[in-house]
User: Which sequence fits this backbone?
């Protein structure tokens, strides 16, 4: 009879350890998937920003190429130049003598550049 009671007690042991392990494993897998998805989103966002920055640099180079080819007396003081990827607005204030301000618009984002007179004449 004593042996029967001992076996009976072993079968009535709580089974919470398996449930807690399953919940812990589910939590761990969820965190890993969330981290992977978030990392993918951040990587895509950085790639998109980097691409826009490179396009802005290329647009700026094309603008300077055309702007510096004009004789100084024919260069406009302000204006816009439209590309298929965006638009460049340029101009200078009376207070900023010798500086040309560029505002490059790509996909609704704005990039600002300021160049001095020596940078305008370098070629």
Assistant:
């Amino acid at each position: 009879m004593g042996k029967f009671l001992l076996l009976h007690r072993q079968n009535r042991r709580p089974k919470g350890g398996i449930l807690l392990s399953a919940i812990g494993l589910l939590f761990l897998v969820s965190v890993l998937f969330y981290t992977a998805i978030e990392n993918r989103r951040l990587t895509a966002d950085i790639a998109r920003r980097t691409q826009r920055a490179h396009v802005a640099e290329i647009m700026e180079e094309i603008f300077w190429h055309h702007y510096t080819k004009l004789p100084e007396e024919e260069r406009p003081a302000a204006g816009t130049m439209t590309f298929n990827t965006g638009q460049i607005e340029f101009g200078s204030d009376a207070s900023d003598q010798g500086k040309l301000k560029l505002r490059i618009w790509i996909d609704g984002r704005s990039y600002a550049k300021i160049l001095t007179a020596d940078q305008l004449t370098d070629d």
